[in-house]
């Protein structure tokens, strides 16, 4: 007998008690006097509390210490898929991505609410493994496409009873007949299902490339972003006197690719199969309302990814602070990350003048940084400081590695 899952628009309850994983600095590496061996954490740079970069060999399963794989169908939404725990439906691709694959098949003779199942897919959750109240919740992914496809990155409350009383936050939903539109929605008592409160964002065809989908959550405030651009805010004032269930309650994460249902409709002859949702990362930080910090230095300017370009090798520079995603940095261990990639010493160089760039996170010494109590940012492998080239405060001046001198062009502060 199949296991009935909690629906996307009509949920069953889920209760979890989860520890929040706290990010911290690695310690014990000897540095110069400008960067002590155990640097004081710069608490203004958001600490990563959950992260999955989906690194690993191709065709391997997701990390079972972080994710549960749900199994079963979903009668409440009239979805057509059967969720499995097979790597043919959810696996790493060996290139730093999770690929969730919907297939037109029934290899296990699965039974769904409508009879013999026609499709398989995958749904992941962090029940019992991670939950958190407040912070920044973000994914960087490439959307599925086609009539009847329904990808989502969302959260459910761990307390408060059954759905919708426990609360639901949809960070990103897309239905295949709207390839250029996504939705962010909240559900709670008296405002659930088709009566959920939210907004749509119209942009590019989201299946054509990777995009960031972000929620900033603080008490009495939820803010949604696409590629760093805010498009919706919700507060208790939006509920017309109904109960706000998004304070002081941890939520767990879900990520899935549904096929068919009341909202998207069923696939048709033009729907590509197999159909994929490709996820580069899922990250959560502990900084509400900002989800990452600006790093300011010489002349009050910000550490900035040139052109907000996430391509490997993009220059990291100083620029007038503007609040964009290109200037929001988070800490994951000793890595400093923006736009889904890491602050990196080019070519693994350690010499004075080595330029600093954006690059895929790989754990190498070129990407290990310590923030000292003296406000230096030091590359641990090189034992050299992040430095504004030539002490030049002009917009676009490149950052480099240089021996730590204590000068103003090597001093950094976070301003969130």
From TrEMBL:
GO terms for biological process: carbohydrate metabolic process. Keywords: Signal. GO terms for molecular function: hydrolase activity, hydrolyzing O-glycosyl compounds. This is 1,3-beta-glucanase. InterPro entries: Beta-glucanase-like, ConA-like_dom_sf, Glycosyl_Hydrlase_16, Ricin_B-like_lectins, Ricin_B_lectin. The keyword Electron transport does not apply. The keyword Signal applies. It comes from the Bacteria. Residues 33-290 form the GH16 domain. The lineage of its organism: Bacteria, Bacillati, Actinomycetota, Actinomycetes, Pseudonocardiales.
């Amino acid at each position: 007998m199949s296991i009935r899952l909690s629906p996307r628009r009509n949920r069953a309850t889920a209760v979890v008690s989860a520890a929040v994983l706290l990010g911290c600095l690695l310690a014990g590496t000897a540095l110069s006097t400008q960067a002590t061996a155990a640097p004081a954490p710069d608490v203004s740079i958001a600490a990563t509390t959950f992260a999955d970069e989906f690194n690993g060999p191709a065709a391997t399963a997701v990390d079972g210490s972080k994710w549960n794989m749900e199994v079963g169908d979903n009668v409440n939404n009239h979805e057509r898929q059967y969720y499995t725990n097979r790597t043919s439906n959810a696996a790493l691709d060996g290139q730093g991505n999770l690929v969730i694959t919907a297939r037109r098949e029934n290899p296990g003779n699965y039974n769904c609410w409508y009879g013999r199942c026609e499709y398989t897919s995958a749904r992941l959750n962090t029940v019992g493994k991670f939950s958190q109240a407040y912070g920044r919740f973000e994914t960087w992914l490439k959307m599925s496409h086609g009539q009847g496809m329904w990808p989502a990155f969302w959260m459910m409350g761990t307390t408060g009873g059954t759905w919708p009383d426990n609360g639901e936050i949809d960070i990103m939903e897309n239905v295949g007949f709207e390839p250029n539109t996504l939705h962010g929605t909240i559900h709670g008592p008296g405002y659930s299902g088709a009566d959920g409160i939210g907004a749509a964002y119209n942009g590019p065809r989201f299946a054509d490339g990777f995009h960031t989908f972000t929620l900033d959550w603080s008490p009495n405030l939820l803010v949604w972003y696409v590629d760093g651009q805010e498009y919706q805010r919700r507060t208790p004032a939006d509920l017309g006197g109904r109960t706000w269930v998004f304070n002081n309650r941890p939520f767990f994460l879900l990520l899935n690719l549904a096929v068919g249902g009341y909202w998207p409709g069923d696939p048709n002859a033009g729907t590509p199969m197999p159909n994929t949702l490709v996820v580069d990362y899922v990250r959560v930080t502990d900084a509400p309302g900002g989800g990452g910090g600006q790093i300011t230095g010489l002349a009050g300017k910000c550490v900035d990814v040139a052109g907000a370009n996430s391509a490997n090798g993009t220059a990291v520079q100083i620029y007038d602070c503007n609040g964009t995603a290109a200037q929001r940095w988070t800490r994951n261990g000793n890595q400093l990350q923006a736009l889904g990639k890491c602050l990196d010493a080019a070519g693994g160089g350690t010499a004075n003048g080595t330029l600093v760039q954006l690059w895929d996170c790989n754990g190498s010494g070129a990407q290990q940084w310590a923030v000292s109590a003296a406000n230096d940012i030091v590359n641990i492998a090189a034992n050299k400081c992040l430095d504004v080239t030539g002490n030049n405060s002009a917009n676009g001046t490149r950052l480099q590695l240089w021996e730590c001198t204590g000068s103003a062009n090597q001093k950094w502060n976070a301003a969130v």
